Write the structure tokens for this entry.
Amino acid sequence: MENLSVDIPLAGGVLHPVRDVSFTVEAGRTLAIVGESGCGKSLTSLAIMELLPKSATRTADRLDFAGQSLLRLSEGEMADIRGDRMAMIFQDPMTSLNPAYTIGNQLEEALLRHRRVSRREARDRAVFLLEKVGITAAESRLGQYPHQLSGGLRQRVMIAMGLMCGPKLIIADEPTTALDVTIQAQILLLLAELQKEFGMALILITHDLGVVARVADRVAVMYAGQIVETGTAEEVFRHPTHPYTRGLLECIPIPGKTEPGAHLGSIPGIVPALVGDLHGCSFRERCELAHDACSKPRIVPVRELGQRRGYRCVLSPQEMASEIREAGVG
Amino acid sequence: MSAQPADGVAVPALETVDVRKTYHVGGGMFRARRALHAVTGVSLRVSHGSVLGLVGESGCGKTTLAKMLLGLETPTGGEIRVLGEAVATSDRRRMARRVQPVFQDPYSSLNPRKTISSIISLPLRVHGLGDRAEVARRVADIMELVGLPKRLASVYPNQLSGGQRQRVAVARALIMRPEVVICDEPTSALDVSVQAQILNLLQDLRAELGLTYIVISHNLAVVEHIATEVAVMYLGRIVEQTDTRTLFKAPRHPYTRALLASVLTPEPGLGVPDTHLGTAFPNPVDPPPGCTFHPRCAEVMDVCPKQAPRPVDVDGAKVECHLYG
């Protein structure tokens, strides 16, 4: 995917919630998109799936999926891919399951829509996957309605539903945010196992840095609609470079590292409005390294730090390195 | 545990003795109503100026316990004492003045049709404290204390960011100058950068005003950071209670260990831990016999399904487990 942008016309001007986002995910790998609320991470995933609200427009230089461009597909062709080779797991299993249909019905629907299979086969596949995601007595669960299941079970059902057609790519939008830590660990473990088994690519969208560090191969940090830093999980967590990434990592108490009761780092200010003509670095108002040059360029360049490792800042790697040394971090 | 404060022993800010709460839930049409034991015998002692972290999975009864501490629910049994005074027999308003809440979601806990200053001053007006000028002065003071700019006094909640809303919730709780503040998931609805600001604020206020907190959270990193003592709840019981350092260094109860193991710290390369907590949280209407944790326990023994464990003292920690019997 190259230079994906989403524009939404509003009464007060055009909103640019996603700007020039580029990334690649290989089969069997996990890319995590991290950022705070409103940074455009969810809209990015909806744009890939072509599920944006009607008023929004999507533009991209390239949007390839398994060697096929998704840019010129008709609604019908896209609907064939969606749920079949590309699936999405939504954040909140309470609202994204239909309360009026049984679990079995909802699981079988995708397979019956995309494949020529009998009800019997669809049912067998549903039972197989429910067992795979660790649901006991799968056969009897098929007749149950979503409200009869707990949050953890519902989330597992969502995952099973995403896997029904054996997709090549799964986009999971905050798959564990609504769950307890114990269940979260189980679900993530399960996702990782299934990914290995089926060779799927996974795009994990989350704001939980703990989840990212443990699950992702590669990380893209998003701020105000742009990717501000990319690299492997190891690189981004061990040597965060962009001031925003560094700020984020200082905000969270880390057991054993942060002094209990000590002051945590915080990022002052708020996310800027992304309406109208935007220029300069969108982080400059909250950045401790901000100076005059930050508001000058229309688009802040991405600085390369090595293969597929970069950050978006006016400071060059040398300048940044000396700033980091001075700040005494990193 | 001594129920009566002896001479020379400080009265705890908050104390509960064998508190219980039982609800009667309908089993559906044509089915008898059944008893749900949400909280089954919780005894806590929170000394003045400390922070008790209350952790556990959803449905373990931590919010029910918090509601009882706030006087929003009446315990079915046991006693709650605030500064040595039994809540059941004292004036409700006087108790409310001493114990105040900060709720989880600042988006739904602030009345959208009231201005910020009227939201913050509501407790004063309910209790009939001070005239108009006095109320206005106290609102201005408290807003400054929690770091809300003056100009926000006349705006509505929808004009505020999540962090600002949570500051309003903190201001509203503190305007009565309470002794104890009960924070139910104070930061879980917030972004990490804002979460850090609110945690810093809570810490500063505690030092400045000598407050006692009870922090309910499922985020163990937050609890370790802010709490001085931790109580782990499972199915309405406290299964382990000790000071924060001991609990995180040497967890005793198998449930505590599993909980701690599931915390994902931002350290790449470690992968996701397997907690072996296989089966889901049990149905609280129909709890397992004996030790209620035994179906999920990695170290289950013959005695566990037969007999409920008694709380025992293990090097200063109070643990309910047969491993230490």
Notes: Residues 192-209 of chain B form the longest helix (18 residues). Residues 163 and 194 of chain B are 6 Å apart (CA to CA).
